[in-house]
Amino acid sequence: MRVISLSEVEPRPRHVAVGEFDGVHLGHRAVIAGSDTVLTFEPHPASVVRAGGGPKLLTTLELKTELIAELDVDELVVVPFDERFAHEEASEFIDAVLVEALTATHVSVGENFRFGHQAHGTAALLAADGRFATHVVPLVEVDGLPVSSTRIRNLLTDGQVDAAARLLGSPFRIRGEVVPGDQRGRELGFPTANLVPDPKLASPGHGVYACRVGEHLAAVNVGVRPTFGAGLHPLVEAYVLDFEGDLYGQRLTVEFIARLRGEERFGSVEELVAQMHRDVERTRELLASGVE
Questions:
Q1: How far apart are CA 224 and CA 134, in angstroms?
Q2: CA–CA distance, 209 with 199 (Å, rounded to integer)
Q3: Biggest alpha carbon distance in the chain?
Q4: What is each CA distance from 237 to 194, 196, 232, 267, 273, in whole angstroms?
Q5: Which terminus in the chain has less CB density within 10 A, N or C?
Q6: Count of CB atoms within 10 A of residue 70's CB?
Q7: How many CB atoms are located within 10 Å of the residue 262 CB?
Q8: DSSP conformational letter for 49
Q9: What contacts 103, CB < 8 A, 6 or more positions away?
Q10: DSSP per residue over 198-229, as a string?
Q11: What's the rounded Cα separation, in Å, for the pair 48 and 57?
Q12: Is the Cβ–Cβ distance between 40 and 77 less than 8 Å?
């Protein structure tokens, strides 16, 4: 899949799916299905048009690109979303982007898609334009409720990573550079690869999770390590099972499969170590049984 800017687009007939697609969840996948080109925006439009900034994102542009590439798409066109673009009228977006730049013959959007200055553009406006065919995709529902990025963020906050994965179509994942820690895990016999959560990105609620890191299983703690004091900054600490080596400075992708328990403050280090052994064994049991 080619990743290009709008200025790099070459004229040709296109089936274009348009949206922010944060998380590339089941609803987004329904919009993208059958399209050869995906048009998205960076940064998230809400971070530009809302005074308080946008929501915490489910995916960086890097991860979003990888997920879209798995959907048999030829091109991802990334439009820089800034104040100037935010003030373009909906008709300008249709004329300049969809028709002139992309020469779209088919346009696919979700039924709640909005665009243009003050979000005046709607799916109905696109459908009324005779220069291309418009496919308006109804909201996808799971368990009787619409799939949305907001719903997924709430599930993650509650630690329900398995339920979030059902809506996403794949496990929720985070990626970051492994940074040095205080070596406490190593001293306890459980050396961890530590990632600092990006405050602009969604993260599972504090707790311990069964995860995958590449080909390895991992028991992962998300939180502030309350056994060792108060006021510690949040970390994602991954104990990668059956791995020996140095991961410092490497970029690691952690896929969250199941929640094991909440984060706890233990009365002694010995109690903590005993629980960590149980967490590791539970991770092996869950992921060996095919829980995904």
A1: 48
A2: 20
A3: 71
A4: 5, 9, 13, 20, 15
A5: C
A6: 12
A7: 11
A8: H
A9: 11, 12, 13, 14
A10: PTTB--PPSEEEEEEETTEEEEEEEE--GGG-
A11: 14
A12: yes
Structure tokens at 68: 């879209």
152-198 pLDDT, tens digit per residue, is 999 999 999 999 999 999 999 999 999 987 666 666 778 899 999 99
The closest alpha carbon to 154, from 144, 164, 143, 145, belongs to 164
Q: Which residue has the tokens 């109905």?
A: 124
CA distance 149 to 221: 24
The token pair that represents 239 in the structure block = 């104990």
The end-to-end CA distance of the chain, in Å, is 27
Q: 177 is written with which tokens? A: 């550079």
Sheet of 251-262, strand order: 172-177, 251-262, 207-213, 216-223, 235-240, 193-195
Place of tokens 């992921």: 287
Burial of 198: CB neighbours in 10 Å, binned 0-12, 13-18, 19+: middle
Fill in the amino acid letter for 262. G
DSSP-derived 3-state class of residue 15: strand
Tokens of 181: 């820690």
Q: Would you say the pTM of this structure is higher than 0.85?
A: yes
Contact 162, 256 (CB under 8 A): no
Element (H, E) at 28: helix 26-32
- Provide the token pair at 40: 């998205």
Backbone angles phi, psi at 238, to 5 degrees: -105, 115
DSSP code per residue over 227-278: GG-SSPPPEEEEEETT--S--TT-EEEEEEEEEEEE----SSHHHHHHHHHH
Q: Tokens 């985070």, residue?
A: 174
pLDDT tens across 66-121, in order? 999 999 999 999 999 999 999 999 999 999 999 999 999 999 999 999 999 999 99
